[in-house]
Design brief:
Layout lengths: L1 H12 L2 H11 L3 E2 H5 L8 H13 L3 E3 L7 E4 L1 H38 L8
Antiparallel strand pairs: 1-3, 2-3
Length: about 120
């Protein structure tokens, strides 16, 4: 189940429009019209609504209904799942970089310890 949720999350995050919508919602709740406004020069309202549906299906946003208004809010739980998944690889890379740093320090120390001797003809 977690892998399916991660797949949906990463698929939703793959699109720059959806990431921009999430960035808007990180500033606070907004209705569909407000979320769509920055994109209406590039796409139609139904296209923005489809992006919102992808985000909602992935569990990244929650959309409710209040009379004629459709307020949306960020759902951080699934973002945290994705961040936790990525974090395990951050730890791997940090450990790899630490090992590389130790190796480079040892090579530098060896070079400093050896004197370059020129051969005479």
């Amino acid at each position: 189940m977690m892998q399916d949720r991660l797949s949906l999350t990463f698929s939703a995050l793959a699109d720059p429009t959806r990431r921009a919508i999430l960035a808007q919602l990180a500033q606070g709740d907004a209705n569909v019209s407000d979320l769509a406004r920055p994109f209406l020069n590039e796409m139609s309202l139904p296209a923005v609504t489809k992006h919102l549906k992808v985000l909602e299906t992935a569990g990244l946003i929650t959309k409710t209904r209040e009379a004629q208004c459709r307020p949306c809010k960020l759902n951080g739980e699934n973002l945290k799942l994705a961040a936790d998944w990525v974090d395990q690889y951050r730890i791997f890379w940090e450990q790899s970089f630490d090992r590389l740093d130790l190796y480079l320090q040892s090579i530098t120390a060896e070079k400093k310890g050896k004197k370059h001797v020129r051969k005479s003809k």
